[in-house]
Amino acid sequence: ELRKPWGGRFREATDRLVEEFTESVSFDRRLALHDIRGSLAHVKALQKAGLLTEEEAQRLSEGLKAIEREIREGRFKFRMELEDVHMNIERALFERIGPLAGKLHTGRSRNDQVATDFKLYLIDETRDILSLLKDLRQVLVAKAEAHLDVIMPGFTHLQHAQPVLFSHHLMAYYEMFTRDAERFREALKRLRISPLGSAALAGTPYPLDRELTAQELDFEKPAANSLDAVSDRDYALEFLFNSAIVMMHLSRLCEEVILWMSPEFGFIDLPDALCTGSSIMPQKKNPDVAELIRGKTGRVYGHLMALLTVLKGLPLTYNRDLQEDKEPVFDTADTVKRSLKLATLMVSGLKPRAARLRAAAEEGYTTATDLADYLVMKGIPFREAHEITGKIVAYAEEKGVKLWELSLEELRRFSESIEADVYEWLTVEGSVARRRTLGGTAPERVREAIASARRQLESE
Ligand code: ARG
């Protein structure tokens, strides 16, 4: 029977079911290294406050570092009866250096300890995600640059709308993932505020230098209010929300990859290495990676809702409900990171089928807007031009031909303003080239967007 660190007032052993129900070490062991960093900083504050001699501080630190090595090498044995990662490490320290270990928890509570650990952990995960987002953005830009000559149909309502550059389409995703990176970077500001020194909820009588521990742990500053510091989980919610948006963007990209891979579209090919087959249908080559990323988006949304619901209605300050913050966040971090890696692989392996894309761009009267614009150029008000062009489209559709397959004489039946120069307005190349407004799909604009993305990526 193991004595609990909090066992002084208890006369009975903890019920086994209660132990199993309340433990968190099975998952919060993931915070072990962050916990040790936090403790090392706390030792410095204790020494500065005169609560530890230099020699004691040194023995505590060395003990903690030895445990750190055990953890890194996978030799550390976590025990469920010790409830959580914090008490496991404290007990290991006691077993290693004796009663001096009992001084470590002076002026500290697991409440400020766990909040500190969790923030340190999320800072690391955020930086990993930023770097994975950067990889994906880089691959998108490289793909866009490699296929600047490919024209595809742009869609609204999943109906052919206007021709666009395939590169322009890819660069739209570059923008989304750049915003996602901005959001994570912005959230770092609030992550980098140190709860350490808030103790259980009210602060502590010991003169702990919270600026010192904040600095030691690379936080920007200490949290201003001890009650808030131990009960705040906004930073975890922000992490989940920012992750949910990344997953939503990935899911939209994946949905397009899945559609584009179907023979009905036939817009792209994916390498065999990134697809899987069917156990019964020998001909199948399926985009399962894209489907799984799309599918995993659901669990990340679920985690966001789960934590929002846990926090709703919690009175200040710490409540054990807060222990439920970890699993959703851990699973989210794992899911987002793996999805980003796979999406990067997928984008870099994706091959546009240029001829098919171009043929598709010519289907569905995608240059009808250009015909209306031509009429505007000839002095006709746009609404009228729209009406005339609509009639021409209906006529062509009935005849089963493309707009440029109509003769000048046929076109002129709808408007006397139409002349021989109309035909340059009807090609998909011409349509794309004319969209030169800032942010438009004209090749020179897209080249500029690519160049500016490259500068941005280099500066990060
Ligand atoms: N395992 C706990 C958690 O994850 C640590 C804090 C426990 N504090 C307490 N007073 N029971 O939230």
Automatic annotation (TrEMBL):
<dbReference type="InterPro" id="IPR000362">
    <property type="entry name" value="Fumarate_lyase_fam"/>
</dbReference>
<comment type="pathway">
    <text>Amino-acid biosynthesis; L-arginine biosynthesis; L-arginine from L-ornithine and carbamoyl phosphate: step 3/3.</text>
</comment>
<keyword id="KW-0055">Arginine biosynthesis</keyword>
<keyword id="KW-0963">Cytoplasm</keyword>
<dbReference type="Pfam" id="PF00206">
    <property type="entry name" value="Lyase_1"/>
</dbReference>
<dbReference type="InterPro" id="IPR024083">
    <property type="entry name" value="Fumarase/histidase_N"/>
</dbReference>
<dbReference type="InterPro" id="IPR020557">
    <property type="entry name" value="Fumarate_lyase_CS"/>
</dbReference>
<dbReference type="GO" id="GO:0004056">
    <property type="term" value="F:argininosuccinate lyase activity"/>
</dbReference>
<keyword id="KW-0456">Lyase</keyword>
<feature type="domain" description="Argininosuccinate lyase C-terminal">
    <location>
        <begin position="365"/>
        <end position="433"/>
    </location>
</feature>
<dbReference type="GO" id="GO:0005829">
    <property type="term" value="C:cytosol"/>
</dbReference>
<dbReference type="Pfam" id="PF14698">
    <property type="entry name" value="ASL_C2"/>
</dbReference>
<dbReference type="InterPro" id="IPR009049">
    <property type="entry name" value="Argininosuccinate_lyase"/>
</dbReference>
<dbReference type="InterPro" id="IPR008948">
    <property type="entry name" value="L-Aspartase-like"/>
</dbReference>
<keyword id="KW-0028">Amino-acid biosynthesis</keyword>
<feature type="domain" description="Fumarate lyase N-terminal">
    <location>
        <begin position="8"/>
        <end position="302"/>
    </location>
</feature>
<dbReference type="GO" id="GO:0042450">
    <property type="term" value="P:L-arginine biosynthetic process via ornithine"/>
</dbReference>
<dbReference type="InterPro" id="IPR022761">
    <property type="entry name" value="Fumarate_lyase_N"/>
</dbReference>
<comment type="similarity">
    <text>Belongs to the lyase 1 family. Argininosuccinate lyase subfamily.</text>
</comment>
<dbReference type="InterPro" id="IPR029419">
    <property type="entry name" value="Arg_succ_lyase_C"/>
</dbReference>
<protein>
    <recommendedName>
        <fullName>Argininosuccinate lyase</fullName>
        <ecNumber>4.3.2.1</ecNumber>
    </recommendedName>
</protein>
